[in-house]
Automatic annotation (TrEMBL):
Tr-type G domain boundaries: 18-204
PANTHER family named among the record's database cross-references: TRANSLATION FACTOR GUF1 HOMOLOG, CHLOROPLASTIC, TRANSLATION FACTOR GUF1-RELATED
Keywords linked to the UniProt accession: Cell membrane, GTP-binding, Hydrolase, Membrane, Nucleotide-binding, Protein biosynthesis
Subcellular location: Cell membrane
TM spans (from-to): none
Protein name: Elongation factor 4
Membrane topology: Peripheral membrane protein
Major enzyme class: hydrolase
The keyword Transmembrane helix appears for this protein: no
Keyword ATP-binding in annotation: no
Catalytic reaction annotation: GTP + H2O = GDP + phosphate + H(+)
Family assignment from sequence similarity: Belongs to the TRAFAC class translation factor GTPase superfamily. Classic translation factor GTPase family. LepA subfamily.
Record-level GO BP terms: positive regulation of translation
Length: 625
């Protein structure tokens, strides 16, 4: 049975802003955000205990399986203070669930911009991790009040005293002010809800000004089209308004407006400080973008709320169907996924080695991995992805600027300067591994910005690093060098000029496009030798000698050779009967169909796939801690 919302003073559209508390929960992955959110839904009576399922708010299958939150959601919950001198004070809590992973930092920052307060949730058995810090900085940038909370106090390994010290040291204040809870058993959660009403401030806004609402999430629903989540800042949006998106000027009819509690509940209007959803019938999330400001067409606001950014892909990779006849299906699947993902970018591309496919842009490696997994799982496609690369900006000597999202577009002429994206990375590690982490970062062209002791045995290291150095196996390396104890977070931090070169891999003198890469000059040799060695083992011997070369322009930097073999399928048939010979030749022809020709060399497609797939796989690891 859907919950019925109070029709009185607390009804959506009529809620006194002084009663509203908008807050988010920020935490490192797996510190228990979704579990705590579930417990709150239950304690506030929004979800019937019998309907409760784990991670109620994580709706997508992939989210639930991976246990990570990709899309944020907002839930409205009534709460009345239970204890203390303000007992009996009724409030409306809007809990805005935020994604935790670095790829979705922009979404986190928009969700937080819709809040006045944030719960800083830390696992009492683990302490502060890199994403705790990164998200805390985002919350502080948005001027949010912070309530420090230690979770999982039911665990035997929990050390709440120790980590309360650490938290207090980080955000200032008294360790005793850290609230201790268990999302699992519910212990401490009612007290936390009381404190949310007591400590967080209500929203402020101009009730009589033209309406302005910020979009903090936008999801595509097969039945309802795009559902847009907004936080009203000024004025009021009612069900009969025509709304206008301030970044594009597009005007839409409102079909429905309401709040989530925890399913969609229609409302008459949303007023100052309220959080809810809009449905306009548009079919594409790009028309309703996160960060944009919604106003009313008849009485538009003059200025948009700040902070809107176009989503910009950071990492590109080619996606190819293993079976070439799946190409139209892949196109259709990408078209559909894009409806739900404003950051996904793709265009057709052809590769000599892999056939027809798409060059796709992603926010980061986890984003790539999620899209690929959804394509394979929901659309039944078998895919191969080329090694991911970042976006380079090359300036030629005659002053032309070329943006390179694919190594094959790298200009061949004289280049004055090449810029690559850099990130600001935060690594948290136990004291013992500081040396190992530094060595790794230095090896990846990192630049140490600073180092702080969070407690006697935990260190925060801040580096700038080229994004390209992080997207391969950085995370795996970090984990293995620190026995799994270090955590990593990073955010884009502009670009830098670097000494970069394009390495081509040539097979019998012909370049194989799928293996061209842009790498730092000092790493070109390593890249060249490793790919050449890999291909030598994967490509079967031919009837002539095949050199595999790695080259920068016309200069060869590495070489391997596949020795010649004469494969005579008829060798076994001395004399014998002609029909048997014909049969063997037919069979050989069949086998050849699966071969790709690179110049004169026959290469089984599986060889390309094997050579490419051993480079990926890091995103999976990066998805979890
Ligand atoms: N013992 C114990 N386990 C908990 C508690 N809260 C969460 N967990 C467990 O910790 C794991 C991670 O919890 P989630 O709620 O999925 O964590 P999350 O922070 O939402 O993770 P992301 O959505 O990936 O960011 C799950 O296995 C939970 O069952 C708690 O209070 N006590």
């Amino acid at each position: 049975m859907p919950p019925t919302l109070d029709p009185g003073a607390n009804a959506p559209g009529a809620t006194d802003p002084a009663r509203i508390r908008n807050f988010g929960i920020i935490a490192h992955i797996d510190h228990g955000k979704s579990t705590l959110a579930d417990r709150m839904l239950q304690l506030t009576g929004v979800v019937d205990p019998r309907q409760m399922r784990a991670q109620y708010l994580d709706r997508m299958d992939i989210e639930r399986e991976r246990g990570i939150t990709i899309k944020s959601q907002a839930v409205r919950m009534p709460w009345t203070i239970r204890e203390g001198d303000r007992a009996g004070e009724a409030a409306v809590l809007n809990m805005i669930d935020t994604p935790g992973h670095v790829d979705f930092t922009y979404e986190v920052s928009r969700s937080l911009a819709a809040c006045e307060g944030a719960i800083l949730l830390v696992d009492a058995a683990q302490g502060i991790e890199a994403q705790t810090l990164a998200n805390l900085y985002l919350a502080l940038e948005n001027d949010l009040r912070i309530i420090p909370v230690l979770n999982k106090i039911d665990l035997p390994a929990a050390q709440p005293e120790k980590y309360a010290e650490e938290l207090a040291h980080l955000i200032g204040g008294d360790p005793a002010d850290c609230i201790r809870v268990s999302g699992k058993t519910g212990e401490g959660v009612p007290y936390l809800l009381d404190e949310i009403v007591r400590q967080f401030v209500p929203p402020t806004g101009e009730a009589d000004s033209p309406a302005r609402a910020m979009i903090f999430d936008s999801v595509y629903d097969v039945y309802r089209g795009v559902v847009t989540y907004v936080r009203v800042v000024d004025g009021r949006i009612s069900a009969r308004d025509r709304i206008k998106m301030m970044s594009t000027g597009a005007v839409h009819e409102l079909l429905e407006i309401g709040v989530i509690s925890p399913e969609m509940v229609k409302a008459e209007a949303l007023g100052v400080g309220e959080v809810g959803y809009l449905i306009t019938g548009v079919k594409d999330v790009r028309q309703s973008r996160v960060g944009d400001t919604v106003t009313i067409n008849g009485n538009p606001a003059k200025e948009a709320l700040g902070g809107y950014k176009d989503p910009k892909p950071m990492v590109y990779s080619g996606l190819y169907p293993i079976d070439g006849s799946d190409y139209p299906n892949l196109r259709e699947a990408l078209d559909k996924l894009k409806l739900n993902d404003a950051a996904l970018d793709y265009e057709p591309e052809t590769s000599g080695a892999l056939g027809f496919g798409f060059r796709c842009g992603f926010l980061g490696l986890l984003h790539l991995e999620i899209i690929r997994e959804r394509l394979e799982r929901e659309y039944n496609l078998d895919l191969i992805s080329t090694a991911p690369n970042v976006v380079y900006r090359a300036i030629t000597e005659d002053g032309q600027e070329i943006v390179v999202t694919n190594p094959s577009e790298y200009p061949t002429g004289k280049i004055a300067e090449v810029y690559e994206p850099v990130v600001r990375a935060t690594v948290l590690t136990p004291n013992d591994y500081v040396g190992a982490v530094m060595e790794l970062c230095q090896g990846r062209r990192g630049n140490l910005l600073g180092m702080d002791y969070l407690s006697a045995d935990r260190v925060e290291l801040r580096y700038t690093l080229p994004l390209a150095e992080i997207i391969f196996d950085f995370f795996d390396q970090l984990k293995s060098r620190t026995k799994g104890y270090a955590s990593l977070d990073y955010e884009p931090s502009g670009e830098q000029a670097s000494d970069l070169v394009k390495v081509d891999i040539l097979l019998h003198g012909e370049p194989v496009d799928a293996f061209s890469a842009i790498v730092h000059k000092d790493k070109a040799y390593n890249y060249g030798t490793s790919i050449a060695a890999k291909l030598r083992n994967l490509i079967p011997r031919q009837q002539f000698e095949v050199p595999i070369q790695a080259a920068i322009g016309s200069r060869v930097i590495a070489r391997e050779t596949i020795r010649a073999i004469r494969k005579d399928v008829l060798a076994k048939c001395y004399g014998g009967d002609i029909s048997r010979k014909r049969k063997l030749l037919e069979k050989q022809k069949e086998g050849k169909k699966r071969m790709k020709m690179v110049g004169r060399v026959e290469v089984p497609q599986e060889a390309f796939i094997a050579a490419l797939s051993s480079d990926s796989g890091d995103a999976k690891a990066a998805g979890k801690k």
